[in-house]
Specification:
By secondary structure, the chain is an alpha+beta fold. It contains 14 helices and 21 strands. Helix 9 packs antiparallel against helix 10. The model has no long low-confidence stretch (mean pLDDT 97). The chain binds flavin-adenine dinucleotide. The site of flavin-adenine dinucleotide has 37 residues, from strand 9 and helix 9.
């Protein structure tokens, strides 16, 4: 028998390590386990939008990230072919995004959890969730060469990704599910300068994005409709370059650059899971997973860690019942995420933008305030519900008409 922890966190990346860190900072006894050993890469691109960067700043970790040489991204450009929308993604307090390599970001997060006093067990594979009388009470697993051990806690948090073992073990309810929509492949390029810009290109049934990251490299990700995945796989490089050629000026820049890594990528399922039950909670992809086209996952995992830890703190402090505090955690998550989920899953079809959207894109040209709004919406800084509100759309269209009359 092991020690009794207040919380065991299964998974030590964007959701798990911040949760471990925040709980340990509040004085709780925490164990964070992961089968990976850090630094460790994972199949994921890694743009962190400004509100995710704001979380790192709040936690005192932004300076550490900046010191790793990660370049700031101050402008996002959306190239629809005939029109380009460019603007600032952030807020006055948190104006830029960063695209930190996961080998660097995740290690930084694990170290921060350890610094805060969380016990970290890397290279530890959990093979079973311990459930007693319908309540999760711990985990059973083993380190690489060790024999199986059982650890117990008041609450086990599943930060174990979209195929969460904890979610499976408790049969967590799934809702608002959608099928896989996009098939992405990405790689890294040298000599492809971005000058602080994140560039996205939207073409018929195709899309791609380029973003600067560590080591003067640029990450370029291409997306196809999921229905074409099997065909794309037969010639990834050829198909990838064909999509880049749909934006000739960008393709020209790529001709002068050099690819320095193999291709990676995997399609994502889209769903929400009920994120709590007797003795357990879910954060990050384990609780809410979506297509990466809007790059929300890391920021969402940070927000979940904050909110879930605050809820558990209220429970442990006796201020609220577990069900009450955790239902509010779920309600706030869903309320904030749902409009972006709908926008993301619509975008990930890579279908032509609806007529109203095209009209709005045309009307935004030359209107910096409107373009900033569009960019902030894509970055998750403001909600799609706010940006696409009838009042905001009317204001943008009216400004364009006024401009046309004056011009
Ligand atoms: C192709 C692609 C591109 C993406 N691009 C972006 C992007 O640009 N920006 C963005 O914000 N998001 C992006 N995402 C999403 C992002 O990767 C996730 O949202 C994020 O990693 C979620 O973090 P997490 O901590 O919830 O889970 P994960 O990062 O999946 O971590 C889960 C951890 O749990 C551990 N684990 C699981 N089971 C066990 C077990 N049984 N025992 C021990 N350990 C276990 C795993 O080893 C892993 O380390 C992308 C995703 C994909 C697939």
């Amino acid at each position: 028998m092991g020690t009794m922890y207040d919380v065991i966190v299964l998974g030590a990346r964007c959701g798990g390590s911040p949760a471990g860190m925040l709980l340990a900072r509040k004085g709780y006894r925490v164990l964070v386990v992961d089968r990976a050993t850090f630094p460790s890469d994972t199949i994921s691109t890694h743009l962190i939008h400004p509100l995710g960067v704001a979380a790192l700043q709040r936690w005192g970790l932004l300076e550490r990230l900046v010191k790793t040489g990660c370049p700031p991204i101050h402008t996002y450009d959306f190239d629809f072919g005939p029109a380009v929308i460019s603007g600032s993604p952030g807020t006055e307090e948190s104006p830029v995004g960063y695209c930190a390599r996961r080998t660097i970001l995740d290690k930084l997060l694990v170290d921060a959890a350890a610094d805060a006093g969380a016990e970290i067990r890397e290279g530890f594979n959990v093979e079973e969730i311990v459930i007693e009388n319908g309540r999760v009470t711990g985990i059973k697993g083993h380190s690489k060469h060790g024999s199986p051990v059982i650890e117990h806690a008041n609450v086990v948090i599943g930060a174990d990704g979209r195929y969460s073992m904890l979610a499976e073990a408790v049969n967590a309810e799934r809702y608002s599910e959608k099928s896989r929509l996009m098939a992405p492949y990405y790689s890294y390029w040298s000599d492809l300068p971005m000058n602080g810009h994140f560039e996205t290109y939207i073409r018929p049934n195709r899309g791609f994005a380029a973003v600067p990251t560590h080591d003067d490299l640029t990450l370029v990700i291409v997306g196809w409709p999921f229905a074409e995945f099997e065909t794309i796989k037969t010639d990834i490089e050829g198909n990838y370059l064909k999509v880049l050629a749909m934006a000739p000026a960008f393709a020209e820049r790529v001709n002068r650059a050099k690819r320095v890594a193999p291709f990676a990528g995997t399609p994502s399922p889209n769903f929400f899971r009920k994120p709590y039950g007797p003795g357990w909670a879910l954060i990050g992809d384990a609780g809410y997973n979506k297509d990466p086209i809007t790059a929300q996952g890391i920021m969402d995992a940070f927000h979940d860690a904050d909110r879930c830890v605050n809820a558990l703190d209220q429970v442990f402090g006796g201020a609220r019942s577990f069900d009450d505090a955790m239902e509010e955690y779920r309600r706030v998550r869903d309320q904030q995420a749902m409009p972006m989920y709908e926008f993301t899953t619509q975008l990930a079809t890579l279908g032509p933008p609806p007529k109203e959207m095209l009209q709005l894109i045309g009307a935004m040209r030359g209107n910096q305030r409107a373009m900033d709004g569009f960019v902030k919406m894509n970055a998750g800084t403001i909600s799609p519900a706010e940006f696409f509100s009838p009042e905001n759309v009317r204001t943008i269209l009216a400004a364009a008409q006024m401009g046309m009359r004056q011009g």
